[in-house]
Structures are given as structure tokens and as C-alpha cells.
Amino acid sequence: MRRRRTNNLVFHEKKKIFTPELAKEIFSWVFYTVVAVVIAFLLVTAFGMKTSVIGDSMEPTIYNGQSVLINKFVYMVSSPKKDDIIAFLPNGNVNSHYYVKRVIGVPGDTIQIIDGTLYINGEEQSIEDTIYDKMEEAGIAENEIKLSSDEYFVLGDNRNSSEDSRSANIGVVEKSSIIGKCWYKMGGTEGESGFLMD
Question: 55 and 38, same structural domain?
Fold first, then answer.
């Protein structure tokens, strides 16, 4: 409140409370808040989907009951790569739980398992034997499997305790059945939280 003196009289003038500058600032705050909420929603929708791993097929990378965050956006602009860990619905069955497995073969690859060893495009993947257990069952990969333009071959990291592309009821995974890339695991009773690196 300001005082103004006129002819020995004192008048009190009220200061304007709502000014154009104040209106502009309020609008600015509202605008940026709305933008932040929209961006947060898009990020949660794209990166924040969560599922729990059922079973021990991905041990020791991910343990039974551990939750993983899924990036649903990444495969809208690119395709799964070898060693990506993906979440998918087997045969696109929406009534099934999400399966979490590692991509071993990509479109154009030929996959075969001979005497427990993985062959991709006719080349023995000897590095596999140093990381994972030798496979006791080849399943449908006993014979060569040629992956078409939208097909992927997946295996669990716990090779001998995994229902994956070797199983006839799962087989190769079509891109349309893939929900997204698993990028972060959250600690459970056994596992620790952390990023899932390629």
C-alpha cells in the first residue's frame, strides 16, 4: 500500500495485485507443469512397463520373482539385436504371462543345436560353452531353422531349465509378439537391482 500526499491530505492507494507480468508468470508455470506431466506419462508408457520373471530360466542374470522394466518404445523404431533380453507373449497369446528370454538369432540367421552346442549360420558358438551350460535338449533346433524377416530365436540363460524357442509350443518368436526390451531388473529375494547390459 502506498501513501500519496495531496494538499496535506493523505490518500492510500492499493497496489495492483494481479498484473500482466504476474499473469504471464502463472501461465508459464501452468504450461511447463502440463508439459512435464505429458512427458512423464509418455516416458512411463514407453519405459515403465513392469513384469515379473516366472521360473529360473534366466538365472543367474535374472532370478525367479524378480521384476524387470520393459522399454516398449525401442522396437517401434528399431529391431531386436542379438543378446537383447526381451519380453514377449508366446505365439502372441494375450492370455499367457510374459516370457523373458535372450535373443540368440535374428532375421536371416540359420540356427541349429548339435550335441548341445549352438551353431549360428553354420558357425559353432564356442563362447556360449564358456558362459552357459551345454544344452541337454536341442528340441526343434535339432534340425536347421532359417529365420524369416520378422522371426527371432530366443533362449533362457539357464539353458537346461528353460522353455524357449527350442520348445515346439513356443518356437521362433515373431516381432509382433515382442512387447519390448528388458532394460532394468529390480532386486528380489536373491537378485540385485541393475541395468541389463547387452
Answer: no
Nine-digit cell at 60? Answer: 543367474
pTM, entire model: 0.78
CA distance 79 to 74: 8
Residues 39 and 56 in one domain: no
Closest Cα to residue 182, out of 63, 51, 40, 91?
51
Q: How many domains does the chain have?
A: 2
Do both 128 and 173 map to the same domain? yes
Hunting for cell 502372441 — which residue is that?
92
Which one of the listed residues 101, 162, 177, 181 is annotated catalytic?
A: 101
Cα–Cα distance for residue pair 92/121, rounded to 1 Å: 27
* Known catalytic residue at 57: yes
Shared-domain flag, residues 78 and 24: no
> Which one is catalytic: 16, 50, 57, 185?
57
What is the span of the domain harbouring residue 116? Answer: 51-195
Reading the chain (198 residues) residue by residue, the pLDDT tens digits are 455 555 566 555 666 677 888 788 888 888 888 888 887 777 766 666 889 999 999 999 999 999 999 998 899 899 999 999 999 999 878 788 899 999 999 999 999 999 999 999 999 998 777 788 899 999 999 999 999 999 999 999 999 999 999 999 999 999 999 999 999 998 766 668 888 875
Indicate if 32 and 107 belong to the same structural domain: no
Q: 39 and 60 share a domain?
A: no
